[in-house]
Amino acid sequence: MSLSGDSRVTAVIRAAQAGDRQAATELLPLVYAELHQLARARMARQPPGQTLTPTALVHEVYLRIAGDSDVTWEGRQHFFFAAARAMRDILVEQARRKAGPKQGGGQRRRELDEACAILEPPSDELLAVHEALQELETRDPFKAQIVLLRYFTGLTMDETATVLGVPERTLDRHWRYIRAWLMKRLS
């Protein structure tokens, strides 16, 4: 993720929120490549057979965050936090839909000659991480932001440190704690 052009994106965001229609049309092209890269990284970790593409995810995220006129972004960082949150919400909604009874509840089709009474359990990784993240948000919102940026948007350690404005060593220390906490919570 390129973090250059922060001031340009921030200026366009503020102008769009002030009602400048030209700035609103300028915003998507400025952030599209970064949003698409984040969506591609996130979708790469999804199980095969997804119907949601990275492009569709970016468009859905943008519609959600740009369509909410009540929200004011303080700048580029806040905009991308909102995008990460929207991406997480969309992916969780999709996982819940797929785990629902109308979609088979995660069951797989099997031939009758296999053990037809035995079904594989559904893959609930995304939902489990979402629930753990909700718990972490109540305990330590800063650590929850780290998970949101690392897991749901696929940022690297140095990109996350830059977005959060913390030294990489500090972020590394927090990330080690978070991973241990998540492993304990998810097991």
Helix- and strand-based class?
mainly alpha
Oligomeric assembly? single chain
Mean pLDDT: 76
The shape is: globular
CATH topology of the largest domain: Rna Polymerase Sigma Factor, Chain: A
Question: How many individual β-strands?
Answer: 0
* SS field, number of helical segments: 8
Number of domains: 2
Quickly name the level 1 CATH class of the largest domain: Mainly Alpha
Runs in which pLDDT lies below 50 for 5 or more consecutive residues are 110-123
Radius of gyration: 19 Å
Query: Main beta sheet, described?
Result: none
CATH-defined architecture of the largest domain? Orthogonal Bundle
Order of helices and strands: HHHHHHHH
β-strand amount: under 5%
How far apart the termini lie comes to: 32 Å
Roughly what percent helix?
Answer: 55-70%
Notes on the structure:
The model is unreliable at 110-123 (pLDDT under 50). 68% of the residues lie in helices and 0% in strands. The protein folds into two domains: 1-107, Rna Polymerase Sigma Factor, Chain: A (Orthogonal Bundle); 124-187, Orthogonal Bundle (Arc Repressor Mutant, subunit A). It has helices at residues 6-17, 21-44, 54-66, 76-99, 125-139, 141-152, 157-164, 168-186. The chain is built from eight helices and no strands. The relative contact order is 0.10.
Core attributes:
mainly alpha; Arc Repressor Mutant, subunit A; 8 helices; Rna Polymerase Sigma Factor, Chain: A; single chain; 0% strand; globular; 187 residues
Summarize the structure.
This protein has helices at 6-17, 21-44, 54-66, 76-99, 125-139, 141-152, 157-164, 168-186. With 187 residues, the chain is an all-alpha fold.
